[in-house]
Amino acid sequence: MAGNLELGVTRADEGVQDRSWNVVGHTYTPKLLCNNAFLWHAVIPDGTGVPPHIHPTQDEWINVLTGNLEVEFGDDVHKAGPGDMIRMPMGIAHAIWNRSGAEATCVFGVAPARKLFDLFIALDGVTDPEELVRLSAAHEVDFLPPPEAA
Length: 150
Hints:
Jelly Rolls; 11 strands; about 10% helix; globular
């Protein structure tokens, strides 16, 4: 469980608790963790993404640093590039994709922190989609079922 915000600096080449994770092919490095918020730097390779999911207990945002991302809210697709801030309110299904042809980097955040830091610990290196969905649900992130085949 996160506590109160600690005074100090998280260096560019460091993560909170010296951690870094491989989650769905992305490299996530935690930069800030307290009860009120969790922020992490992400490297998102081209052709990867996070399928539709909901954070029922957290607002989420992404500040794009380099590259381009697409965020889907159902059939509504928003494109974002360097300097853009993507806002994803709690309870709203969203998916995040890098279909740009190049790597993207960004800073994600959620508020409050809830169980997401612990989820990333659990998901580090997990490649089985069913296990990813199970672990995520146990940590307050609900993935939507895949669309029906036509």
